[in-house]
Design goal:
By secondary structure, the protein is an alpha/beta fold. It folds into 2 domains: about 120 residues, Rossmann fold (3-Layer(aba) Sandwich); about 130 residues, Rossmann fold (3-Layer(aba) Sandwich), CATH 3.40.50. Helix content is about 40%, strand content about 20%. The strands form 2 sheets. It has a 5-stranded parallel β-sheet with strand order 2-1-8-9-10, sandwiched between helices. The protein has a 5-stranded mixed β-sheet with strand order 3-7-6-4-5. Strand 9, helix 10 and strand 10 form a beta-alpha-beta unit. The protein is elongated, with a radius of gyration of 20 Å.
Length: about 260
């Protein structure tokens, strides 16, 4: 399906395992070039842990990423709360990967939007007027979710537990990237910005000689800020959906070759 195709993987290194395994299962050659890394905000983490002492006042917790789930769980374990406290709340997850991470911690999910975009979650919640909502997420995350919650008169408690910053790939990663690839994948707006931060003026030239695949429209919009248009935008906003979109593109392209 993707036999011998070199695919640049730009997402943070700790989130690549399932992605690269799936690529390899299809015969692709993943080239790891993480353009971003996750940095914790310890002040916000401590603030949230203190807030967990009042967890019974909350109605919902909304998780928008695996990173948010993992960091929340670390602080939860340090608190005096138990899993029984969580069972009294309703849990919303944005995207199947986030939901799966919650399941791995034994946390049931009450709702997940059909479209894996933050603001879509509001459509799947019950009447939330006056509800206290705990929102652990990334610094600089899109404001549309909070705006939608506030428009529905929810009381939002946001905790920016981490941020994505530009990474410094090791020399071997640079060497492999410089050899050229068939596809460049972007799984978030931050991976796009990190790529351009790292390559500077060379970024556009590099992308002109490859096929660009984005996990969804928001990531593609970030690319358009640099006057670059992605040839592939996944319909299902997951790494699996991204790989499947690349497979479909490759099959269509191969059929057109005389």
């Amino acid at each position: 399906m993707l036999l011998g195709k070199r695919v640049l993987v730009t997402r943070p290194a700790h989130q690549t395992e399932h992605f690269i395994n799936y690529l390899r299962s299809l015969g692709a050659d993943p080239v790891l070039f993480p353009t971003t890394m996750i940095v914790r905000d310890f002040d916000q983490l401590n603030r949230m842990r203190r807030e967990l002492e009042r967890i019974d006042q909350y109605h919902w917790i909304i998780f928008s990423s695996q990173n948010a789930v993992n960091l929340f769980w670390e602080e939860f374990q340090k608190s005096d709360c138990s899993i029984d406290n969580l069972k009294k709340l309703k849990i919303a997850a944005i995207g199947p990967a986030t939901r799966q991470t919650l399941y791995e911690y034994g946390i049931s999910v009450d709702t997940m939007p059909e479209k894996f975009i933050g603001e879509e979650i509001v459509n799947s919640l019950e009447n939330i007027e006056g509800n206290h909502i705990l929102l652990p997420r990334a610094e600089g995350a899109r404001e549309e979710l909070i705006k939608a919650l506030l428009q529905n008169k929810a009381i939002v408690h946001e905790f920016s537990l981490y941020k994505s910053v530009t990474n410094s790939p090791d020399p071997q990663a640079w060497k492999e990237m410089e050899k050229g690839v068939d596809f460049v994948t972007f799984t978030s707006a931050s991976t796009v910005h990190g790529f351009f931060d790292l390559l500077g003026d060379r970024a556009k030239t590099y992308l002109m000689h490859t096929i660009i695949a984005c996990i969804g429209p928001i990531t593609a919009q970030a690319l358009e800020e640099y006057k670059i248009v992605a040839q592939i935008i996944a319909d299902t906003y997951t790494t699996k959906g991204l790989v499947e979109a690349i497979v479909v593109f490759s099959a269509d392209h191969n059929r057109k070759v005389p």
